[in-house]
Amino acid sequence: MENKLKTNGKFKYVEFGEGTPIVILHGLMGGLSNFDGVADFFPQRGYKVVIPELPLYTLSLLKTNVGNFAKYIRDFIELQGYEKVILLGNSLGGHIALLTTKLYPEHIKALIITGSSGLYESAMGESYPKKGDYEYIKQKAENVFYDPAVATKEIVDDVYSTVNDRNKLIRTLAIAKSAIRHNMAKDLPRMHTPTCIIWGKQDTVTPPEVAKDFHKLLPDSSLYWIDKCGHAAMMEHPQEFNKILYKWLSERDL
Question: What pTM value is reported for the model?
Fold first, then answer.
């Protein structure tokens, strides 16, 4: 996937293809390239894949929270002129997708979450490495995946750079606290948007029990497992992830 950033007002994003928009939300330590597999697959099947850059480190500290990120996505959808979108989020991106769906259901046709925070209070605070030496950061990054080789030097370097940047670290901690405050357990039973839950069986950041709880609490959800897979299924097993998601969308006529 070639990342050619487009700009519309305050928003920066990449987009591929034409058709029903799939808007993708990356995680706290994630980036646009985490979804290369999705961006290569779905535009060939009648979907427009759109990945906005989340303003994780650019809003004022007071506005750096999950609720404001949900408003940001609502504003993006409206500015782009999309009638309804399919929302896909990983980790923190899944949490933002869930809150956006709760607050602005009129904009969301379907929801897909993978390794999402929103229920498991420890998922944010403990999973994202604090300041430390490079080897410590490398180990923490590798632990996110079932296969540590997925944590390339580029990924480790990005995480290391983030946690050693004081401005970014302060915002990372603010986001983590905000995510814990925005626990979705009481909201989920009232959310009837069709939801596809795709989870790594060996996810240690948001363990399998979290996926089961999401499935139990969301009234219209389907749960799928990917084996030998950690916290970012769309990165570790892109073909299987795409196959599961495409089948689910097709069965739902979405």
Answer: 0.93
